[in-house]
Amino acid sequence: MIPDSDLRLDPCADPVRVISALPDSDRVDKPEEACGVFGIYAPGQEVAKLTYFGLYALQHRGQESAGIATFQGRQLHEHRDMGLVSHVFNPEILQGLPGELAIGHTRYSTTGSSRRCNAQPVIVDTRLGQLALAHNGNLVNTTQLREYLVARGCEPTTTIDSELIALIIREEVNSGKDWVDATISACLLCVGAFSLTIATPDGIMAIRDPYGIRPLVLGIMPDHTSHYVVASETCALDIIGADYERDVKPGELLWITADGIRAIDWAPKAAPKLCIFEMIYFARPDSWVHEESLYSYRMRLGKQLAIESCQDADIVIGVPDSGIPAAIGFSEASGIPYAEGLIKNRYVGRTFIQPTQEMREAGIRMKLNPLKDVLKGKRVIVIDDSIVRGTTSRKLVKALRDAGATEIHMRISSPPVTHPCFYGIDTDTQDQLIAATKSVAEIAAQIGVDTLAYLSWDGMLSATNQNPNNFCSACFTGDYPVEIPDGLKKSKLMLEMGAIN
Ligand code: SF4
Fold first, then answer.
1. Does 276 contact ligand 1 (Cβ within 6 A)?
2. Rounded to the nearest whole angstrom, what is the distance from the C-alpha of residue 392 to the centroid of ligand 1?
3. For residue range 291-342, what is the model confidence (pLDDT) as tens digits?
4. CA distance 52 to 340
5. Between the chain's N and C termini, which has fewer beta carbons within 10 Å?
């Protein structure tokens, strides 16, 4: 047994840099993504630099911290810190991360606070050498996993569920198993959503939970057919010139070493349940999921929305970025001209420098600025991908009216969000979700639009090219594919607990 003091995790000694306590008014009124993962096996190439670019492409999946771990022979090198990928790394730091293989992570915290000690990859020491792990998703049985570890004399040092997976793998390795068997044993204990990349001195692993709730894809470097890449999304393959090979299957483990790639179905068969919100909003529009272009899917959502709830108007605009393809689709199906009515300031993100109160009052304009000459005197259809709490929508509608729009008809390219997510997406507690407590007419009145309509659940699923049963859509229905333990449910399902009327 390796004592806990041997863990390579920082002892959370940097509590000053806590950035998660944003004022309520400053929180993004959208479900927030919970991490991007990347891994590469490419001896002879600059794996840290390639990982950096992969993480750069996955920045939208998490902006709180970033990290890379490489192996050069049996020597681990790692660097992680709070902030954007471009802030955390520079050429000197990347130069200090030599190796034949690497994994990387961008983080948005849904469990565990936003502190440097929770930045990933998580690193543990084992009898076979060190192991680095990057996780996208959320486990729902962390209480049992903690108890399991504590009963074996192993006390987790951070508040993140990802550490629990790494520690259980460590326990299994130290009990005599090899990397693959130890990882499978650990995954069999985990319940919830997990797409993992794992680096060891002997190779990298890519693993998806039995339902495949979070995405994970496999790519190959075209000039080096023994060089493999795994990533949350295909956009991270594109940026380094890797070719998409296939999705990592739900319940599959890939073991990539000098001997090539080995695919293992580690989990009992389950119906796939990819998060439908990845398709609608989270993943980049230039990414492909299950060989389906997300840009095209989002356009089809807009077309379907026009079929279901068209409205007389002068122009259709989209809320950047994810509302744009749906707005173009809506325009094509309705014949109402598409226009660019909102310009996004791409460089406003989570920052250590908080805006002043006066700047906060300006609200939405820090992120989205309306084009007055496009909007003035126009009846406008605004397409957005979702409404969570309604606070941003209200500010957006006011900004559009201030810019001269005479009518505002909001159309949402997904159904009303009525239930929280437990699988790695931050969607607030149920009482914070506006559609959980208000009718569509009440929401329209609250956000100040002339009319409001949502896409139907059938319309959302029928717009995919895939089997509609292969998606999780629990935040629209409350039908959770992986059972949520009661204690966890109580923390978020305030309505069912009678906390609000
Ligand atoms: S509950 Fe919603 S956000 Fe969470 S995985 Fe399911 S579809 Fe995605």
1. yes
2. 21
3. 889 999 999 999 999 999 999 999 999 999 889 999 999 999 999 999 999 9
4. 32
5. C
